[in-house]
Amino acid sequence: MARWVVSRVHARYTAPEVPAGAIDERGRPVRRRFEMRAYLVDLDGEKYGLPDYLNVLVHQVPPVGWWYVKAVDGDYLERIERYRDPD
Q: Which of the pair, 73 or 2, is modelled with greater confidence?
């Protein structure tokens, strides 16, 4: 991730912290999770000869919050829309 340049941020997402013992909307227990962030971005890899990526999700992965790049489609973005931060 450190070798790409973020050329555009399209959207920001924040998944709220889930405390220990939480229950989801279906009544099932949910694993504890700290607040996680994600960004829908365009990445420019020209400086190091890397490919450019358009509309990829740069997101944190539990439990330690490492950052990953993930190709996403419209269906995935629809599923995470509830976590989108207001512009």
A: 73
